[in-house]
Each structure stands twice: as structure tokens, then as C-alpha cells.
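Hi everyone, sorry if this is the wrong subforum. Our group has a chain we'd like a structural model of before ordering constructs, and none of us has done structure prediction before. Sequence below.
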Amino acid sequence: MGILNIWCIFRLSDMFLQDPRWSLFAALFVGTLPQFALDSGMINNDSLANLLSTISIYYAFKILESPAKIRNFVLVGLSLGLGLLTKKTVLFLVPGVFLILCYVSLKNRRMLKQIGKSSLLLLMIIVLVSGWFFIRNYCLYGDLLGTQMEEQTLQHLVDKKQLSSRYFLRPFMPNLYVSFVGKLAHTNLLPKAVYYFHILVISISAIGLFLYVKDKHFRDAKTAFALLFIFLCFGGVVGYNLTYSQSCNASDGIGETPPVN
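Answer:
Right subforum, don't worry. Here is the predicted structure as C-alpha cells:
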């Protein structure tokens, strides 16, 4: 699943860069992240959730390119439905996909009827694949997502806080970066140089992204929706940490041993 995800990221990057050499860089960046290698080498649901998320985004962008092809709608519905069954964190994709469907409908009004039918098919596939699971949650726990059940089961981890909490400046942001690069076995076993190197790579990439958006690509719908998915994913992580603190030691930093990932 890790290898398939890298391949999908390569194909996704090629949509923007249209140069296999630079698209390969994006795939190699993900493939050489220590945390990605660790997760891909373990038996968990993260690898499948990551793969299905990448596939969902890829075919959602294919809808932007070719709204007439019903195949793209079917594959988004299937991959997103399976993703929602795999892990609740995949929910961040739902508003992004919905907005893509709205955008495509408004931009291609001559095809509105066809796009409407394809969108309805996409929704039906999601409901058929994963709808039963949310009904099950409601029957067992009283809410569709099982959030209340999780809080009751993991009371020792619940630490509800406001968005304005100082927690999100420190330790949340530093440990979010450390966890992104590699928090192996819940400890920072990697040399400090690894984290600093990735800071350099990410900084250079951020400058490149800024120049890309500032250029003629600023009005490109795929670029706008790519940024939207990034913010939605980040918002999901922040939302989770409003209830569960994934790092609770304000002294955590690069090269130190944090508590819980």
C-alpha cells in the first residue's frame, strides 16, 4: 500500500508539474520520510487510509479535468467510501469533494444534467459502501461517528480545550512537525540533522509553491483545491487535538523524547 501510494502521488504531482523529473521529486520526498516508511512497514489502518485519500484526491482532480467521464465519479465514490470505512480521519475529504462537484456544475452548466446524475451516482456509491457503518454506530452508540463512545472509552486521554489555547503554539506545532518527519515508536530516535534537513527541503518547497501560485497558475482550479485539501487536513488534525492532546509536554523539541504521539 505504501508503494501504491507513492505511485499515486507521482501521478497526482504530474497533473500540476507535467514534468516527470519534478513529479518524481514529490514521490521521493514522501517515500523517504521516516514516518511514512515506519507506518508503511506496520500493520495498521493508516497506510490504507493514506492510499485511499490519495486516490480520492487524484480522481477528484480528474473530475475537474474531464467532468464528462462518469468513470472518475465512480472511482471517487468507491475510494472515498472505502476510506470512510477505513478511518474517520478521511472525513476531511468530504467537504473538498463536495465543493469540487459544485464548482464543476457551475462551470459546465451545459452539462449540468449529466454532472448532476454523475454526482448522484458518486453519492450513492459512498452510501452503499460506507453508509451501513455509520448507521451501525448510531444504533450502538447514539451518534453516527461514535465520537461520544470514544471519549467515554478513552477518558484518560480526553483533554478538551479552546482553539485559542496556548497548547497549539507549543507543544502542538513543534511536535506536529516532528511527528510528520518521524516520531519512531513515540520517541525522537532520529538525529537532529534529519529534522533540520527536512525543514530546509520543506522551506524550499514552500517558496516554490508560493511562486507557482503567484504565477499564472493562481487561477488554476486544481491548485486552489489542492490548497483547500491541505487546509482541511490540517483543520482535521487541529479539531482532533481540541479533544485529545497528542503531545502534552511544553518542553518537547527536536531531538528530545516526547510523551505520546
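For your construct planning: The first helix runs from residue 2 to 17. Residues 248-261 have pLDDT under 50 and may be disordered.
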